[in-house]
UniProtKB/TrEMBL annotation:
HD domain sequence ranges: 285-445
Protein keywords: Magnesium, Metal-binding, Nucleotide-binding, Nucleotidyltransferase, Transferase, tRNA processing
EC number: 2.7.7.72
PANTHER family with a match to the protein in the record: CCA TRNA NUCLEOTIDYLTRANSFERASE 1, MITOCHONDRIAL
Statement: the UniProt record of this protein carries the keyword Cytoplasm: no
Pfam families: HD (PF01966), PolyA_pol (PF01743), PolyA_pol_RNAbd (PF12627)
Annotated source species: Streptacidiphilus fuscans
Name of the protein described by the UniProt record: CCA tRNA nucleotidyltransferase
GO MF annotation, one: nucleotide binding
Gene3D superfamilies per record: Beta Polymerase, domain 2, cca-adding enzyme, domain 2
Known cofactor(s): Mg(2+)
An individual GO BP term: tRNA processing
Keyword ATP-binding among record annotations: no
Length: 501
């Protein structure tokens, strides 16, 4: 909880709030205290409720805000639902909120910033997809019961009416929250037919909350997996991001693969489940990739990162071996090879992430990490020259810290002696990089002469020849380290003379 907010031990309990929440009956005293806590921590919630009540409308805290409060987790995002229409919501928050945005108003949502809180207020609604449409049709409702029944899962279909502080739970979300299970308010078939993206949300919430998905929900996800194809790539990407950035991504990803949803949104992942037979045994690439992802997550707080979930690193860890199915070859004697799978995988990564509408920067970074993830294995027992170390750093560029983490995560062998040897070898490489950084400007390797100096020395104009000279000096810098202006000038003149001859 942000500092300065009241706590159950220090904040005075409003007698009206105390009585109203405790009267709800189905809440335990601890849960009632958590609901009281969110109202104490965020007095704007009750304030907003009175504002809507005075205007003749109802307002309720709803969805993830209630779920997280009952789980003892408070964030800076609050979701409300109301019978007021979007235009009426805008009038009520104008002059009250510090900032207002209406990008979601077509779907009945108005955003407000108040006291560093991000607030969303949405008109009671129902939405469904036409069989052939990628966009949901939205219709507004008049009661909170109508709104809650259209929610994705029962744990998100609880509300606290304000300012009365009345707990509303028509679909037994509180029981499911206690059992840590995901169920739909109505039948899962009806829910997923209305909005197929909810199938991905089931996997995402399983990963975020570490909940189990009810068997009937899993069955519906499996039988209706093809319905996800009508959902836009942007919405699918959003759910995948939240899943991959969660605390337990393996749980959600495994569910996507087991239900067949991954075949439609990330087919490269289930393709990693290569068959194994008695003659061609090799590591389970699918399980290996999930383990690499988990090990990369464990390293996020090390190195130069800020300790926050790193989407670029996590996607690279998940996708680093997707080139293996296409490059698999059975060798004489029963061996299996995957030559150049890192290059094939980098191309596949670009295509998949482009299809999912990721940014060009993220696509370039993730595919580059996939391409470089095997480079370290050429280091052997430390035989690389300083030139090779410089090239490793140059090729990784700003991704070097992520490449360190990906490479270390890629070791999933159960042979402790082998794992320790690999770790020591990579420690050696990192020490050499650090030593060279102390001696040289290794983070931004440039020739000792710039373009203007090259043109002046060779008496040439901008063009292809300047680029060739620059490339020559850069290669010289990588091979020999910093030369200084005088030595670089002599080397350039000699190269130019030989080139002209």
């Amino acid at each position: 909880m942000p500092s300065g907010f009241p706590t159950p031990e220090t904040a005075p309990a409003d007698p009206a709030v105390q009585a109203a929440v405790s009267h709800s009956g189905s809440l335990s005293e601890q849960q009632a205290d958590r609901v009281r806590e969110i109202l104490r921590a965020y007095p704007v919630a009750e304030e907003l409720g009175r504002r809507f009540q005075q205007a003749g409308f109802t307002l309720a805290l709803v969805g993830g805000s209630v779920r997280d409060a009952l789980l003892g987790r408070l964030g800076n995002d609050l979701d409300f639902t109301t019978d007021a229409r979007p235009e009426q919501i805008l009038k009520l928050v104008k002059g009250w909120g510090e900032a207002i945005w209406d990008v979601g108003i077509a779907f009945g949502t108005v955003g407000v910033r108040k006291n560093d809180l991000q607030i969303e207020i949405t008109t009671y609604r129902s939405e469904l997809y036409d069989r052939n449409s990628r966009k949901p049709e939205v219709s507004f409702g008049d009661t909170i019961e109508e709104d809650l029944v259209r929610r994705d899962f029962t744990v998100n279909a609880m509300a606290v009416r304000l300012p009365e502080v009345e707990f509303i739970d028509p679909h037994h979300g509180l029981s499911d929250l206690a059992e840590r299970v995901l169920r739909t308010p109505g039948t899962p078939e009806a829910s997923f037919s209305d909005d197929p993206l909810r199938m991905l949300r089931a996997a995402r919430f399983a990963a975020q909350l570490d909940f189990e998905v009810a068997p009937e929900v899993v069955t519906a996800m499996t039988e209706m997996a093809d319905r996800i194809e009508i959902v836009s790539a942007e919405r699918i990407q959003g759910e995948l991001n939240k899943l991959v950035l969660s605390q337990h991504p393996r749980k959600g990803l495994s569910l996507l693969v087991d239900t067949g949803l991954a075949e439609r949104v990330l087919p490269e992942l289930p393709a990693l489940r290569l068959e194994r037979d008695e003659h061609h045994r090799h590591k389970d690439v699918y399980e290996h990739s999930l383990t690499v992802l988990e090990q990369a997550i464990a390293l996020e707080e090390t190195g130069e990162g800020d300790g926050k979930p790193d989407l670029t690193l996590r996607l690279a860890a998940l996708l680093h071996d997707i080139g293996k199915p296409r490059t698999r070859r059975f060798e004489p004697g029963g061996g299996v090879s995957f030559h150049h799978h890192e290059l094939v995988g980098a191309k596949m990564t670009k295509k998949r992430l482009r299809d999912l509408k990721y940014s060009n920067e993220l696509i370039a970074d993730v595919s580059r990490l996939v391409e470089l993830h095997l480079r370290f294995h050429g280091y052997g027992s430390g035989e690389w020259t300083d030139s090779a170390v410089r090239r490793y750093v140059r090729d990784a560029g700003p991704l070097l810290d992520r490449l360190h983490k990906l490479t270390r995560s890629d070791c999933t062998t159960r042979n402790k002696k082998k794992a320790q040897a690999l770790s020591r070898t990579y420690d050696s490489l990192e020490r050499r990089i650090a030593e060279l950084k102390d001696q040289e400007e290794l983070d931004a390797i440039r020739p000792d002469l710039n373009g203007d100096q090259i043109m002046a020395l060779l008496d040439i104009k901008p063009g292809r020849e300047v680029g060739e000279a620059y490339k020559f000096l850069l290669e010289l810098r990588l091979e020999q380290g910093p030369l200084g202006e005088e030595a670089a000038t002599a080397a350039l003149r000699q190269w130019w003379t030989e080139r002209s001859a």
